[in-house]
Amino acid sequence: MTESHYHSLLPALSDFLARQIGLHFPRERWPDLLRGLHGTARELHFKNVPDYIDRLLSQPLNKQQIEILARHLTIGETYFFREPQVFEALQHHVLPALIEARQQSTRQLRVWSAGCSTGEEAYSLAILLHRMIPDIAEWNITVLGTDINPQALEKAAAGIYGEWSFRGAPPWLREKYFMNAGKNLHEIIPSIRKMVTFAYLNLADDTYPSLASNTSAMDIVFCRNVMMYFEPGLARQVVDRLYQALLENGWLVVSPSEISQSSFERFVPIYLPGAILHRKSLIPQKTRQSATSTPTETVAAIRPAAPKAMAKPKTADTVEKIDVHAMLLKARAQANRGELPTARELCERAVETDRLNPVGHFLLGAILQEMGRNSEAAISHKRALYLDPGFVLAHFALGNIYRDQRKPHVAAKHFENALLILEKHREDDLLPESEGLTAGRLMEIIRSGMRKEDKAA
Ligand SMILES: C[S@@+](CC[C@H](N)C(=O)[O-])C[C@H]1O[C@@H](n2cnc3c(N)ncnc32)[C@H](O)[C@@H]1O
After folding, report:
1. 81 CA to middle of ligand 1, Å?
2. Domain 310-456 belongs to what topology?
């Protein structure tokens, strides 16, 4: 392969990388691309880069090849409390209200550092929560760090850092939260280490949010200094999936000017000193703007209204409903963590307390399904449907159960009912109790499942 032929392949190669890993290499970044390809070719023992490019373009990549490429083509640069204004914004404006609200209800908080590299960002979040919640041992805290680079994740899990990771960090950080681990090395203390879980996740894949990867129902998602390498279409898709991964009123934190502001249409921008945070709102932007005189909100206006109602319940009935709501939230979180027997027990208690709550029956059905108890699950889903005939996810779940039980006609009836309900929704409507699934996406899933069944018949 001649030098010019090799350069003529770069546009095709950039397209290929955008599709496979989501990384964007416009012409001005070709020197970075070539540097990364040299490193990868060397690591994989190719004689030269052109041979490697040939191979790359001629067959699909497996997971390990993607990981090696991504490691050479991305920069893992990170450090503790990077961009301190963002952490100050969390400490002073976001977390106090959130902690107060949860103190009264579930005592649960879920944060995710997506593209966490060697873990400094995830540990910074854990440390901040540890400092702000005095009775943290009584809480159920999830701090998830994910990345596409397994070597970075290994280092994150080990939790041992050199001086460079502490540049700009406040002096108390090393003193209070790290132990000496040899010459100029510092190891995170066990109480913080055990708050954080690290896992592989390629943000370009359509695999999140999901219960399985524990990437749903997040309160705060950090995805900083990651999307700037993505092709703009992919960056928008990633923002969309992160939106779905957040709870209502949850927060997305990206780096300033990392990607175009138009990608955040579904969020409310909150301007805080030195940081712009994006808040998930289920009210479309246009409605919000016509309803308010200014396009953005102030911090005072965004504090959750929930704690007031929770702090002073008016009647026994209200107390009971709030308890059931809290129990169901907790059961869902336990199920998300795979603690199915505990989740089932709690959900059964919630259902006993409020038998007329369709969500309780549905959640119990979903947990029983996860436990492989399909017949019992079907009874719970039917109860949910009896109480709320428009409960689309209950139809979907029953369709799946009957398909697995080889009762195709009954399954088809439930899938068709689900489609009829979904047709009344807008495509991007989030479905209740789905942890971020849209009506359009569920229609696609059901239709493609029904096509497969038709072919198999
Ligand atoms: C510069 S680091 C950012 C670390 C941290 N978020 C921060 O701001 O300090 C970028 C990280 O994004 C990761 N990354 C790049 N593409 C990714 C993808 N498709 N999926 C997941 N992580 C990715 C890289 O492996 C790298 O560790």
Report:
1. 16
2. 1.25.40
